[in-house]
Design goal:
By secondary structure, the chain is an alpha/beta fold. The protein is built from 5 helices and 4 strands. Helix 1 links the parallel strand 1 and strand 2 (35-39). The mean pLDDT is 88.
Amino acid sequence: MPAQPWLDGITLLYVGCHPNQVAHLRGVAAVAYAGFMHHGGGIEHHLSLLAGLVSQANLVVFPVDCISHHAARIAKQLCRQAGKRFIPLRSASVASLLAALRRPAVAGLADAAD
């Protein structure tokens, strides 16, 4: 983990994953000083709520191994319409989320938020 916050001012929307993983993922966002929102990808949250969450987020991520194709398609479509960045993750692991958050383009989002 970096010594300083690198995503201060960014709100992350995580779509998908198992409910028991959310606390761990929220912790990763907290270490990076990012806000965190979660949508179950249609599993425990209705997809109609996704548009409102995407509008509040700076970055949307979703694990391709733990989201329906339909929910992933909707998330990508909403992001494109709203001009939001999205990153499909290889898996619903903390390591995949950390790798995505360390991308230079994501760090650029925090710079733009300042």
